[in-house]
Every structure is written in C-alpha cells, then in structure tokens.
Protein: LysR family transcriptional regulator
Amino acid sequence: MLQGVRHIRAFVAVARLGSFTRAAAEVNVSQPALTVQIRQLEESLGVRLFDRNKRQVVLTQAGRDLLPALQRVLSELEAVMSASHDLAGLRRGSVSVATLPSVAAGLLPIAIRRFAADHPNIDVKVSDVVAERIIQLVKAEEVDFGIGSRVGPDRDVEVTDFLCDRMCAFFPTDHPLAGRRPLLLKDVAAFPVILTARGTSVRSLIERTLEKEGLEISLSCEANYMSTAVGMVRAGLGVSVLPESAVDAASCEGILVEPIRTPGLVRRIGFIRKANRSLSPAAERFVGLLREVAGPTLAHFSNLDGAAGKR
Structure:
C-alpha cells in the first residue's frame, strides 16, 4: 500500500505543478526517484500519463481521464493510513470488555481512570455480566476481551491467568460463626446460605467444592449481584459465600468477612479472548494497565492461592 500511495502522490504532484523538479521537492524525493515512480505507475496502469520534454510536462488524455479517480484514491488511502497510525499510536479507538461484576467494581474503575488520563480519545466500554455471558460475548466478538473464569473446556477461547480470589463467608457481627478459626465450608453449611445465581463462576466453584466435601446446604436466597447478596446478609436472611473482592462491590458495614479455609475455594480469574484473535493496540495497552493496577492485589491473591493449596 505504501508504495502505491507514493506513486499516486507523485503523479498528482506532477500533474498539479507541471514540473518533475518542483514535484520531487514537494514529495521530498530526488527527481530521478520521482521519475522512476511515475514510470512504474505508468507500467502498472498500462498507459502513458505524461508527455514531457526539456521545457514542459503535460498530461496525456489518459492522464487527464485518470487524474480525478487517482486523486480520490490518494485521499482515501491517506485517510486509511492516518486512521491506522492513530490506532497504532493510541490516539483514537475504543476498548470493549466484559467482566465479572466484582472486577468491575474494584480494579476496573482505577484502570479506566488511568487509561483515560493517558489516552483521552479512546473510549472504554464495560459490560459487567456473569461468567457464562462473558464467554458468549467474547465468542461472538461483541467485546475485545473478557475478565472472568473458565466455566468449562472450550477451544474457541483462550484464557490467560490474571489473579486469584479466595472465597469468604459474609455474616452479621453477632452471628455464631463470629470468631471461629479456622472457618471451614462445613461450618458455613450448618446455617442457611445465600448464594449467587446459577451460571456465575462463584456458584459453580462452591457447588463443586460442596460435592467434593460431601456437604449439603440449606439455600436461603439467590442473588444475581454480590451487592444484593450482602444486603440479604445484612437483613439476617443467612450466611453468604462470596469472593473476597466482593468487599469492593458492596458496602459491608456491620458485616464480618472471614476467609473459608477449605481447600479449593479459590476463584481463578483470567483474561479471556477468542482463540486465534489478536487484540488491538488499545486493548493490549488496557490489559497491561490492568496488570499494573492489580500488581499488589495479584501478589496478595497468589500468596493466598498457594497457601490454600498447602492446606
């Protein structure tokens, strides 16, 4: 494309200025180089574009006929190149991400604020949805990438590790579980339990662990959003099992949050993109910024994950 743009630009300059010398100066090449470009363009088009001698350069009839079309082509190609350079240079564009609500309420706003300060002309669009919906949006290419958990084997998506989030019990300060150390899932299961809805990564993780531990629960309530589950806890409807990051997603005033030490209750969160699809420069930069923002949290959760595995 670049060579074609140079050739057409050289032709338009000679046609407008009527001089190879002046045209060469305008497009910043030597006159012999410009002459070669015109000759190559004539060969590719199969027509002679100029009649020239030592005193003058004039368009041939073919050159006059092609000039308007080539001017339009040049304008469109230069617009494409300008837009491409803007995208590569992060001067314009957009980033769309589907994410778990807990990430949307915690890390994401910090990253968006920093990203907007560095790249004010790039829009960031966020869809905070459950894990299954994240996968659907990524596979349909309705978002650039997702931040969520695997919900099962799927060759159509690629997941890159991001962080880990341990499960905690949320209960009122005067609850019988207050002060119990270590707190295990079997302790929580002795009370009415509030869980997130089916299809969420948290619900799937808890159900797998309950089955592994041979435990049954009395399900008090279900909620689509963690903030709703915390509100139900505050109302005395039961004990909720939520990721530690839910503290960022809801007001936990008057509620105790205690890690559950049962092995395996750690939610792994990753960047999800469609298999064999590359990210735009803007999306790549946003992913990098998310890793920077999550740096301290990532180290903290990694330590927790390792500790859980040793228990």
In short: The CA atoms of residues 114 and 289 lie 8 Å apart. The domain at 97-162+270-310 is CATH 3.40.190.10 (D-Maltodextrin-Binding Protein; domain 2). Confidence is low (pLDDT under 50) at residues 298-311. The two ends are 60 Å apart (CA to CA).
